[in-house]
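ugh ok so i messed up the first submission bc i forgot one of the chains. this is the corrected input, ALL of the components this time, i swear. 1448 residues overall. if the numbers dont match what u have on ur side tell me asap before i send this to the collaborators (the ones from the other lab, u know who)
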Amino acid sequence: MFNSFGSLYRITSFGESHGEGIGVVIDGCPAGLKLDFPFIQAELDRRKPGQSRITTQRKENDDFQLFSGHLDGMTTGTPLGFWVPNTNARSGDYSHIKDMYRPSHADYTYDAKYGIRDFRGGGRSSARETIARVIGGAVAKLLLREISDIAIEGWVESVHELKMTGLPEVPFPKLETDFQQAVRCPDPEMAEQMYHLIDSMRKDGNSVGGVIRCRARNMPAGLGEPIYDKLEARLGSAMLSINATKGFEIGSGFGGTSMTGYEHNDLFVNENDQIKTTSNRSGGVQGGISNGADLDFRVAFKPTATIMKDQKSVDAKGNEVIVEGKGRHDPCVVPRAVPIVEGMCAMVLADFMLLQRTRRVR
Amino acid sequence: MFNSFGSLYRITSFGESHGEGIGVVIDGCPAGLKLDFPFIQAELDRRKPGQSRITTQRKENDDFQLFSGHLDGMTTGTPLGFWVPNTNARSGDYSHIKDMYRPSHADYTYDAKYGIRDFRGGGRSSARETIARVIGGAVAKLLLREISDIAIEGWVESVHELKMTGLPEVPFPKLETDFQQAVRCPDPEMAEQMYHLIDSMRKDGNSVGGVIRCRARNMPAGLGEPIYDKLEARLGSAMLSINATKGFEIGSGFGGTSMTGYEHNDLFVNENDQIKTTSNRSGGVQGGISNGADLDFRVAFKPTATIMKDQKSVDAKGNEVIVEGKGRHDPCVVPRAVPIVEGMCAMVLADFMLLQRTRRVR
Amino acid sequence: MFNSFGSLYRITSFGESHGEGIGVVIDGCPAGLKLDFPFIQAELDRRKPGQSRITTQRKENDDFQLFSGHLDGMTTGTPLGFWVPNTNARSGDYSHIKDMYRPSHADYTYDAKYGIRDFRGGGRSSARETIARVIGGAVAKLLLREISDIAIEGWVESVHELKMTGLPEVPFPKLETDFQQAVRCPDPEMAEQMYHLIDSMRKDGNSVGGVIRCRARNMPAGLGEPIYDKLEARLGSAMLSINATKGFEIGSGFGGTSMTGYEHNDLFVNENDQIKTTSNRSGGVQGGISNGADLDFRVAFKPTATIMKDQKSVDAKGNEVIVEGKGRHDPCVVPRAVPIVEGMCAMVLADFMLLQRTRRVR
Amino acid sequence: MFNSFGSLYRITSFGESHGEGIGVVIDGCPAGLKLDFPFIQAELDRRKPGQSRITTQRKENDDFQLFSGHLDGMTTGTPLGFWVPNTNARSGDYSHIKDMYRPSHADYTYDAKYGIRDFRGGGRSSARETIARVIGGAVAKLLLREISDIAIEGWVESVHELKMTGLPEVPFPKLETDFQQAVRCPDPEMAEQMYHLIDSMRKDGNSVGGVIRCRARNMPAGLGEPIYDKLEARLGSAMLSINATKGFEIGSGFGGTSMTGYEHNDLFVNENDQIKTTSNRSGGVQGGISNGADLDFRVAFKPTATIMKDQKSVDAKGNEVIVEGKGRHDPCVVPRAVPIVEGMCAMVLADFMLLQRTRRVR
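and heres the new structure output, hopefully the right one now
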């Protein structure tokens, strides 16, 4: 509830965009896990601002500190306290919107809920909070490596109307070109087009949305907790708690609603003494439990609300105002959101792996 | 976790399709709520099988009993224990699939997870469990009536490729024709087409999916609990825990990903001293908190996995088998799922209404 | 929270003294556990009223029904729904106290909390609710039998000022005399004295309190979840949630406060390659985690508030009234509370056994 | 669970004795609370080491930093992240016990549970973790001030066999003499005797235990959540999670077991149109819910396990060893534990105050 996520593998996060920094406590991580610090930093680097011309120009290294929970890099079973200081917050940038409600931001709703709001950089509603998710996800990935073969791979499937079709190679290919790296789309031609579209939005002070697709390969069957904590329910909750998301679908998703059952059903076959399906419209989940096929889901991100254009709005007293577009902005959040989506997925799967240890007498 | 849903207003359900019945305990319902028993039964009647030619012909009245938690129909603050006996379970119908894995059912995954499975009618994975959701939702609606003006209204927006456009009247119109009632689509012409499509699927032993759209009007601003229990996250989790769902979107959803920020942002205006938005691409939620606009979301349901056609599959030993299509089936679940979607939405909102009482010092 | 207890092995209970009955849902019980129905009934029989002359004369068999969660007596991993109907509730007995507040009962506090109260037999505050605990505990004992060697044994250590000294034999001896059986004290002479004291209280319409001591033998080291869910914290919470309890101590308890550290510390020794302690003032717990020694704790029960004597009190309007002592009453609750204490202990240990499966990478 | 405490007002703590410091996240604190920073520091000062000759000579100021959750000292409803760095940890002091199990410490049990242990200063099992409880409690006290008249007052009732009788004045008197301040016992003569006893133990390298008694005055009726989250159950859990506690009793406690019901029952009277009791053997709780009388409970603390004497023990391989008594130690923990007991009580009451807002329809 509130600022904690997960049952057994659980994070609790704190911190605001323009406060001291972002912290996250990981509780329930099993003892005896070797922490790969460079990996955790590398995951943060995939999320950090200022990576390329098409992300916000706020420059921060997002270096993490680990305050507790380990002995020489080995987890002890006690809570891991991570901390990432804010180093490039410019609160002054926000004084002009102190009393204004920016369109499609959380300014108005935080005021309506709490009666007070930290206006500096969106406060707690800022996407800077996702640092906590990436750290929690990075440690979950390390745990999954130790206790499973699961590999989680996210990519940008679409930006605005530019859409990559099909699935990337297995295992996931290196993103080789600068465009691929900047956009995180494995299709090189599509990546280039996406890059130019986002860059044109940036120049125009506008923004675009997109879709991230994510798969988890080498899934064991049996993960997920019916009835109310089905795998897709927990995953959906995880994804829809990320800033700017407006939709989630698994397997055939909305598209599958225009199929018939005879077309849609995934048939079971025996493949070298393993039970497999010949198709994966289920997206790896049946009855809320993984079936061993690849977990396959999509997350929709709206175009960033922060744009460099003047917009009509009101202030806290209800007066009409013009919200000026100025400051720094991300013309498209999806490239930076890939490690966030993967991280949330990793935490869900790590939690369910632990829970599954308790679901049979032996 | 597992078979409980909600934080303060919480249900815990039990029971299987072909066991004794379905039970649900509602804990955390505030004291002093007058229970409208005919309303609760009416909600169950909207879900019950055998309502029309296009639903499963399993005939059950789904009459509920209330075992505890009230004094002469007034809640006492102690848990409400509801019970709906199974009266028309034909377990014999399932002996032929005892060891088989029906395609896109939960047979294989329950075995993989638990090492044992109640094969009769799908056991716990059966949609009969949704009785618990409808009861929990009906009581939540009664609570919302007392403590808010919120009105929750769901309808069938699409079946296969037949799609109603636009929004229904405010307040929601009576479903007048037999077709409208059977299909729960407020557009009379579309309802008739949908009816015939579903009926043709029924005759063919096939099935179709569809989309339910739901709105909540007269929403207060301030509901939802960032960061990990945002309104859309909890709603998404609620919906994706319903049988046969494959997707959830709120407001502009997946469609919104192909807009620009300038097009997508909802502008605030002052309307008779109330802060409103001129559009609702946010679907009533900003930053995970309701903004007072209508909550507006969609849920995708796959075509029913149970079809009256023979399909290839394997048994528990990996042998190839033919799963014969026989018994009773629902050619399209969306009409009966409308009260389930509404009920889950009502529980989420009731819970957040209670939580919001605790989020300010005064 | 509220009417649920436990993390992974979790019960949710409902029902009142003079309503339809008492129900309990056990969620999180692992799949593949053979349910020993006669054992569950035998545990209920140890708690049931009317067992002997020194318990309340309300006569009920407390026969249970199991509605869900098993296939031919084997748990399936889905929730177990148990139900025990009330068969000898005489609500008429309570009409005279409908608006009165009985001294040291929950009448006044339920009114103060909820603004409404089910006055019949104490409603939800009645000890009849402990049926749920005994059932939950019985299944937990069955689970512990399968996954550990833990043996849980409670007994009456004192009634009023009559106190048994020392520990009973290992394994726990059969209670052979009628006095032992009625009182549940393994010391035959003390049992006889306790019996006569309680019987004299019964004749006088008065009541007495007492202490239950409980041990768990063959404990594995490692159970308990610091920092806030230490073994003694969870056990204490479990015991103090039982009706009429006023105190809990583990190991040396309050008596240990008048020792010095040098006297109190339990020394470790190597006993046949097992690490043991030469004394057990810790009561089997160090740092909130079991150390392999016997778990050893005590629970204080106040004298029953219901007595057959007239007492001054007030009614809901603040008028002075005389609460007449009439009806049926238990002159001392501790004999019947032994299976309740054991049951709560079993649930705590079962939960921690499951949690411990998740606390190491391997 | 694990390192979180509370339902709506919830803390999550992290950090070890000899790591970087101790952190605590307070989630669920309502928005709009003015934080009194000097008060929070003063509470920490009541707990800090080195206060007087009779506490450990580890010298640390325990200055806190607040990283998030407020705007100019006013809570915003988002999580408060507090941090207290360790400034005087001497890890070298512990190298000699790296592989040894100190008697009645958590060394062995942490190894048994996690397979790894941070041996430096007891790691997570150190009482240094109680900093988190004091901070969480201090903020809870500030909240209670705003939303209630509740006043929480703890004191040392006994040290070894020295016991203060009766209750202190109302309101709680200033601790005027140095002895009173050092020992936190309001009886000046008893305080002096206690002081000298503790000091003699210090010189002898031994330790003693004691009892803290705590009351909460001006309690509203209605706090506590039956059946499993009764006020005494949650309080008991809170207290028994504190290091070195072995017992908890409320009201008449263990002593009450040797009374009869007629003697023990608290009679209700009408006092100026308020319903009061003429005695308080209930300790302010009936049926798990506060009745408006003073909450009155006791907590037993064992003598500190760390002593400056050589003791026999074993190492991790089972070899016999001598644990040498050296380093710094607290000859009696109860004086420093008073603010911890009060703080845990404050958190329980703040949580139940918030919960009670949700337990009636209006």
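quick check: Chain B has a mean pLDDT of 95. that seems consistent at least. The interface with chain D takes residues 8, 28, 30-33, 75, 77-78, 143, 146-147, 226, 354-355, 357-362 of chain B (CB under 8 Å).
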